[in-house]
């Protein structure tokens, strides 16, 4: 049995999707990021960085894992699934996982902050992060032109990148001109385990679309977090 400490963010949903895909039993422990529950001493003992997601594996002497990418690798290696065992196959998956961790996530996260949350709109900064996010989308589209999935079979690399790409409209980045990326996005969205995973927990606002009252309220809450100096990514703050 595992505990998943999480919230409704792309990084949080990476791990819940993986858990659902792997069919592992877990207890969902949802943290209220706006209330600062991720900064309590109890949670900092699990993740010193004070961000979600994190997992605790009770079958392995209550072993704690933080950082979403590290959680995905741990779960894949624990089960022998969603990542090849051979060195080259494993490396291909890890390359595309690191692509998300070092590129897609940070760039879209900053696009969200400056496009949605930051009190002052700075066009040059918004253009910078949206433009770099779109460039990275083109890289994904190019890879997917000749591949069904990013690194061979469906893997944690697809889960990690998809959890962010699905929220592209929240970042103000369109993908109508990227047919291979759209095909991949829709195919993964149709997987039953993915559908279950993005409801663990369900988001208060649909980050895949724009313009409703819930989105406005969420953006206001996120703006207050920015103004008070709390670390933030879409959905409220994740690692």
TrEMBL record:
SUPFAM superfamilies: GST C-terminal domain-like (SSF47616), Thioredoxin-like (SSF52833). Gene3D superfamilies: 1.20.1050.10, Glutaredoxin. Keywords: Transferase. Residues 1-83 form the GST N-terminal domain. PROSITE patterns: GST_CTER, GST_NTER. It comes from the Bacteria. InterPro entries: Glutathione-S-Trfase_C-like, Glutathione-S-Trfase_C_sf, Glutathione_S-Trfase, Glutathione_S-Trfase_N, GST_C, Thioredoxin-like_sf. GO terms for molecular function: transferase activity. Residues 193-212 are annotated as: Disordered. CDD domains: GST_C_YfcG_like (cd10291), GST_N_Ure2p_like (cd03048). Residues 86-205 form the GST C-terminal domain. PANTHER family: DISULFIDE-BOND OXIDOREDUCTASE YGHU (PTHR44051:SF22), GLUTATHIONE S-TRANSFERASE-RELATED (PTHR44051). This is Glutathione S-transferase. The lineage of its organism: Bacteria, Pseudomonadati, Pseudomonadota, Betaproteobacteria, Burkholderiales.
């Amino acid at each position: 049995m595992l505990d998943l400490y999480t919230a409704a963010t792309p990084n949080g949903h990476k791990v819940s999707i993986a858990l659902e895909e792997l069919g592992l039993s877990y207890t969902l422990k949802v943290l209220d990021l706006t209330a600062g529950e991720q900064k309590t001493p109890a949670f900092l003992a699990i993740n010193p960085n004070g961000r979600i997601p994190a997992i605790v594996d009770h079958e392995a002497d209550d072993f704690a894992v933080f950082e979403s990418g590290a959680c995905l690798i741990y779960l894949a290696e624990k089960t022998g699934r969603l990542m090849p065992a051979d060195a080259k196959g494993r490396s291909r998956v890890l390359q595309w996982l690191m692509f998300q961790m070092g590129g897609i996530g940070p760039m879209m996260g900053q696009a969200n902050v400056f496009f949605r949350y930051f009190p002052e709109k700075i066009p040059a900064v918004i253009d910078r992060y949206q433009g770099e996010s779109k460039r990275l989308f083109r890289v994904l589209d190019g890879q997917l032109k000749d591949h069904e999935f990013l690194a061979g079979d469906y893997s944690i690399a697809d889960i990690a990148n998809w959890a962010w790409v699905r929220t592209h409209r929240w970042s103000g980045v369109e993908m109508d001109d990227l047919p291979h990326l759209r095909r991949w996005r829709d195919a993964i969205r149709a997987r039953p385990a993915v559908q279950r995973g993005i409801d663990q927990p369900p988001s208060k606002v649909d980050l895949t679309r724009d313009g409703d009252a819930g989105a406005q309220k969420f953006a206001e809450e996120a703006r207050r977090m920015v103004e008070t100096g709390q670390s933030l990514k879409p959905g409220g703050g994740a690692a």
